[in-house]
Amino acid sequence: MIKVRFFASLKEDLGTTQCNIDWQEGMTVAMLLDRLQTTSETWRDALSNPNLLVAVAQQHAAPDTLLSDHIEVAFFPPVTGG
Fold first, then answer.
1. What is the mean pLDDT of residues 61-77?
2. Domains in the chain: how many in total?
């Protein structure tokens, strides 16, 4: 099981702060994101930003990062500021 957390505007857009997804051997961040986007049109829209940030076990991660069972993955919208 992978614990998926959502922060900032994502949690508002998705209506939740977290969910659990069944882990599969060889699963990457990109594969997890694809699976999450099939939840609904709202989820697809909210998670389709190409600048979406992701952390795996509290470390910045790339789309090809392999996931392990019982790990935490967090998604963040792009950060802006001045």
1. 97
2. 1
